[in-house]
Amino acid sequence: MALFKFWKIYITENYIGILQDAQSPFKLFNHQGEFICNVGSIGQGPGEYTMLYSAAIDEKTNTICLAPFSGDKLLKYNIDGDFICSVYIGKMQKTKIRFETDGSISLVHLCFKGMTGFQYARIDKDNNVSYILPNKYQAVEARDKNGNFVGFNHEVWFYNNSSDFTYMTTAIDTLYKYNPQNERTIPRFTMTNHTGYYCIYNELPFCFMVKFGSVKGETWKPESSIAVIDKQLEQSYYVKIINDKVGHLPIDDLPYSNNGWYHEMFEPYQLIEKIQTYLKENKCSDEDKRILEKLKESIDEDDNNILFMGKIRK
User: Cα 172–138–208 angle (5° rounding)?
Assistant: First the structure.
């Protein structure tokens, strides 16, 4: 019951939620790694779902909300995984959600040009829904020039690491801020002069973190695949990130950070291979070697996934 494949993770002060793929039950653990329950199940009945895309956990109300890959309802459960209710929203695709401090839910999803009836929604504590109409400049083309549906090739990037509701989509090179109180959306951050590379933005309380990815015909090669822009100093840096709690093991990709928590997940064999590769490079100190060898020996390839996590500084 507790075994899973990793896709998306949602960490709060006391819980770890795992969305292992779009068509598997949402799993809930505590911070000690103990399995608590499956939240809902796969199916067509009340409280069941066929494909999920995102989730949110609110410890204040002990509520878990699950959002569909494509569908018209949000599903609410208690912290024991019991179904509470469904909330009809209307046609949604690749929905991202978060609980606000007052227990309401804010929602953004992929908005298709000429097809989608709303771009944002706000669900209050009594499950009343209000909508914000689509912004044509932020909507994506659902079909290519041959009429083929390609809308789901796009993504919504929403990491929820700051007090602001900020997000971006693959179709637009700008991080937007949505204010549910006054129902306005304003540009928050963008980068220029990165021809040949796409950027994914993740806003943290003290910085913007940018992940560069190459596209066909690249003309510019950055010094690193990750950059950090310090908000206070208004300076930017290429960075390489390490896990200084585990023998300064390098983090090769953009650190996954959402809901105020950093996390990095490995299948056991992947972590063993990563440690072995790093040790062969002879770049670590004797103390780091000792730590990494001890960690490697403690790993059983038949175990569940291994999670590194830490709270993001304010």
Answer: 45
